[in-house]
Amino acid sequence: MIEVDKLRISFGDREVVKGVSFNVERGGSFGIVGESGSGKSTILRAMAGLNEDWTGRIAFDGKDVPQKRKPEFFRKVQMVFQDPFGSLHPRQTIDRILSELLLVHKMDNIEQRIVKALDEVALPKAVRFRFPHQLSGGQRQRVAIARAMIAEPEVLLLDEPTSALDVSVQAEILNLLSDLRVAKNLTYVLVSHNLAVIAHLCPQIGVMQYGEMVEELSASDLRLGKTVHPHTTELRTLSVNLEEPA
User: Fold this and answer.
1) For each of the chain's 246 residues, which pLDDT tens digit applies?
2) Is residue 38 helix, strand or coil?
């Protein structure tokens, strides 16, 4: 479903992504882990069409995409951001936030789609006519996921989707994302600095350092300590818990 080949991205004279390549099968979930400044979120923004200044190849479902995307691309590929409060318009109700994407893509049955979207992320109907500041952080991120899902995409790009949340809420959001992927045969790329989060949701993992993907390995090999690159070993040592979730 996703092919990234020799992706390079520069900011001015500084190259921040240096020839990164990886593939994700349809219905699969690929995690990119690395410290701040490693280039992982920059890759995701280029894939999402938010950064148009890159070279290399990005393809979805076998079709290469240009730097500047057509509107229909954004129905097929959606992104969930790190900070749900920052990504939701503070002066719009949840109803308006969810209906906006449907109106842009000229989709029908708006009422039914909004009700279904809220139900799929386990939010009560009363949330619909509230504003983002009236919701908890976990509820806001569920709204952000519902907004990404409402246009019925095939790919979700997830940029640190739990890092702004309390630890007690993180597992709930990760389990929700896992259930949605299976139920709708979605393809995920998840970016995080947290190896435990990546290992929870992604069977395959790419490790970034200084703009390069220095290692690809399975989550099971990561848990067993079967790492090759020293940076992967270091990240694993610093991680608190890589066990399979209960």
Assistant:
1) 999 999 999 999 999 999 999 999 999 999 999 998 999 999 999 999 999 999 999 999 999 999 999 988 998 999 998 877 777 888 999 999 999 989 988 888 999 999 999 999 999 999 999 999 999 999 999 999 999 999 899 999 999 998 878 888 999 999 999 999 999 999 999 999 888 889 989 999 999 999 999 999 999 999 899 999 999 999 888 775 555 443
2) coil
Residue 198 structure tokens: 């990546």
The ranges assigned to domains in the chain are 2-89+156-238
Helix/strand/coil for 42 = helix
Q: Is 57 in contact with 4 (CB distance < 8 Å)?
A: yes
Rounded to whole angstroms, how far apart are CA atoms 59 and 53? 16
Q: Which residues pair with 31 in a beta bridge?
A: 190, 205
Q: Which pTM was predicted?
A: 0.92
What is the dotted CATH code of the domain comprising 2-89+156-238? 3.40.50.300
